[in-house]
What we know:
Elements: H1 2-26, H2 28-33, E1 56-59, E2 75-76, H3 80-91, E3 97-103, E4 108-114, E5 121-130, E6 136-144, H4 153-171
Antiparallel strand pairs: 1-6, 2-6, 3-4, 4-5, 5-6
Helix pairs in contact: 3-4
Amino acid sequence: xxxxxxxxxxxxxxxxxxxxxxxxxxxxxxxxxxxxxxxxxxxxxxxxxxxxxxxxxxxxxxxxxxxxxxxxxxxxxxxxxxxxxxxxxxxxxxxxxxxxxxxxxxxxxxxxxxxxxxxxxxxxxxxxxxxxxxxxxxxxxxxxxxxxxxxxxxxxxxxxxxxxxxxxxxxxxx
Length: 174
């Protein structure tokens, strides 16, 4: 019986090493691409329906999104064209971030950001909307491509981005 257990333990260890070697050889981007493209595409905030699983986060105001927001969207004292540049500058220092869409005339940005160790891709949609008083509201929706939970990563990102955007807008205020 002991010999059988030792053989099974060695087999399991071999399989773990094989999986790790395969992961490192293929790389996380190629591996996760098997689940679909890392960019989950555009969302329409006006008709947004949240994921059924706890792996997304939303910064919005009720007048712009029917979905329940996790935090209020940041409102900045800038017109949309300036707010667009503020958002790009504010998040430019984020690690492992790739901008996949930028439409200044529509106030739309989209990014893919990957986790540090495993390289899991998350899509972040940003929409800058003008307000009647000349300010802009920055809607942010972050969602995971893979899994049913994200250990709070998307919510932490949305909060961090809201803070970065607000701080950048205040720093360079006219």
